[in-house]
Amino acid sequence: MGAACDHDHVHGGLHGGALERALGASERRIADAGERMTAPRRRVLTLLLEAGEPVKAYDLIARFGGAEGQAAKPPTVYRALDFLERLGLAHRIASISAYVACSGDDQSAHAAAFLICDCCGATREVAIGEDDRLHQAAHEAGYAVQRTTIEAHGRCAACREAA
């Protein structure tokens, strides 16, 4: 991604008060689930929220220590990612092997759908209905769907305009 992209983009994450509000809401959600927001979980979630775009696990490992430059041990980051994903605070985007903070207003378990720009890498989470044909087909087959992630690749508006 990004190789064919020769124009500027702004992929902004959360900072300052917006970041603190998002972390506070996440901590409440975690507490409501009877879980704890440990320091490693908070650090990984902070990195995802600040990025505002998908981040590969090895980049999270490298950034974990911040200004001190201390990389985290891989199991620490992967455990935090698994936890955040299980609670619906982060999503794994399999096609690009990256993670992104959930941007949905309702961070309860939901079907996640992502629009991924193959030019610049911009990724946007969009709402889809739980009553779609996939869930209907699963219900008819006797399945109880616990998590759905849909990934659609293409070009964002900025990349299409610049082409």
Which regions are unreliable across 5 or more consecutive residues at pLDDT < 50?
Answer: none
Annotation field: number of helices: 6
| CATH third-tier fold name | Arc Repressor Mutant, subunit A
Domain module count = 1
Q: How are helices and strands ordered from N to C?
A: HHHHEEEEHEH
The strand line-up of the biggest sheet is 4-3-5
Which architecture per CATH? Orthogonal Bundle
Mean pLDDT: 86
Radius of gyration: 17 Å
Question: What is the CATH C level class, in words?
Answer: Mainly Alpha
Main sheet attributes: strand count, strand direction, barrel closure: 3 strands, mixed
* Bulk shape: globular
* Helix percentage range: 25-40%
Q: What is the percentage of strand-forming residues? A: 15-25%
CATH superfamily: Winged helix-like DNA-binding domain superfamily/Winged helix DNA-binding domain
- N-C termini distance: 15 Å
Total strands: the figure is: 5
Helix/strand-derived category reads: alpha+beta
Helix/strand layout:
Blueprint: H1 16-32, H2 39-51, H3 57-63, H4 74-86, E1 90-93, E2 98-101, E3 112-117, E4 123-127, H5 133-140, E5 149-154, H6 157-162
Parallel strand pairs: 3-5
Antiparallel strand pairs: 1-2, 3-4
Helix pairs in contact: 2-4
Task: Describe the protein in words.
- Helix 2 (39-51) crosses helix 4 (74-86).
- The strands form 2 sheets. Strands 4-3-5 form a 3-stranded mixed β-sheet, with no helix packed on it. Strands 1-2 form a two-stranded antiparallel ribbon.
- It is globular.
- The mean pLDDT is 86.
- It has a single domain (16-162), classed as Orthogonal Bundle (Arc Repressor Mutant, subunit A).
- The chain is 39% helix and 15% strand.
- The protein is of the alpha+beta class and 163 residues long.
